[in-house]
Amino acid sequence: MSKAVEIDIASVSKIYGKFTAVDAISLKIPAGSYCCLLGPSGCGKTSTLRMIAGHETVSRGDIALGQTVVTDLPPAKRGTAMMFQSYALFPHLDLVDNVAFSLKMQGVPKEQRRAKAIDMLRLMQMDAYAGRHPAQLSGGQQQRVALARALITDPEALLLDEPLSALDPFLKVRMRAELKKLQKSLGITFVHVTHSQEEAMALADLIVVMDNGRIEQAATPREVFERPSTSFVARFMGDHNVIPGKVAGAEDGRVSFDVIGGGSFQASGAPLEAGSDIDVAVRIDRVRIGESPINGLGFSGIVSNLEYRGPSVKLTIDGAGISDFTAIVSDTAFFSTPVDVGDAVPVHWDAEDAIVLARANS
Ligand SMILES: Nc1ncnc2c1ncn2[C@@H]1O[C@H](COP(=O)(O)OP(=O)(O)OP(=O)(O)O)[C@@H](O)[C@H]1O
To answer: Which Gene3D superfamilies match (predicted)?
Structure first.
């Protein structure tokens, strides 16, 4: 039943009064992919989603679904469906009438729309509850009904605004797996707004990291994790130490840099002019402790905090002008030579795990 379409966002801006919430973004979301718009509160992800849906006007630029430019079309004519954060179910209607609502608006005869609504409830394994009202359902069940209601129009793209935020942590993880399964089985394009890195990593084929109305990086979860393109992405994804410094020199794909008031280090990256301000990202899970640093790939510092996490231990270390440097080491590695808060410890990493990034614009 797949009739997925590519979503093409071309130089789209959203301006509220004098405030630019979305700033000339361009993005192609491949047909049939699961795309997560990810970023902190206020970065413009909901405005972007609402412009795709047609619930918000586009100030500049164009949006196309497949071959159709939808910029000026009303929501119902776009081939998209939207699922809202609060689910927006009608409390006075039973589940069948809730799910059948948009078909009623389209003038589909009662028997036909009820039959389709029951089919959709069956797809979401909610047909046994068809006669209930929303208040008689759990959060996860309400979410399934909201999905059935969004999918009843056979959309080419489903747009989801923080669909898991109302659920408790346990249910969140379960419904997340269901969303992914549903997207795979329907084969349509999903665009899902979230501020959770973990959620985006778990779900997306394409993660679009946004900040201040702009796209910082659009890539697969693995690329975003392994090769963050900016310091903002590295910091926001939370899996890197971001160390500010100044370029001292460069040769053979290595950049030497100095931390203000601290040590001199090396990282991987293209040559940059000496004196340029840079950030360097070091993967927190690739840092080793207890090995003497060589060739500017580590330092000696003092352990300022320890967190035991079961399979791993998180250490916070200060030294060489770097504060709150984080290392995640396996429990086995940690307990073979344990250290305590206040101990001096050498930390070490490989050159390919320290990458030069564009300095954050903030
Ligand atoms: N109708 C509006 N009028 C004026 N400003 C608005 C309006 N809607 C959103 N904004 C502003 O635009 C910016 C982007 O909002 P948007 O809702 O797109 O962000 P978001 O990334 O989805 O944030 P959140 O995660 O908090 O929902 C915010 O600074 C917000 O205050």
So the answer is: 2.40.50.100, P-loop containing nucleotide triphosphate hydrolases
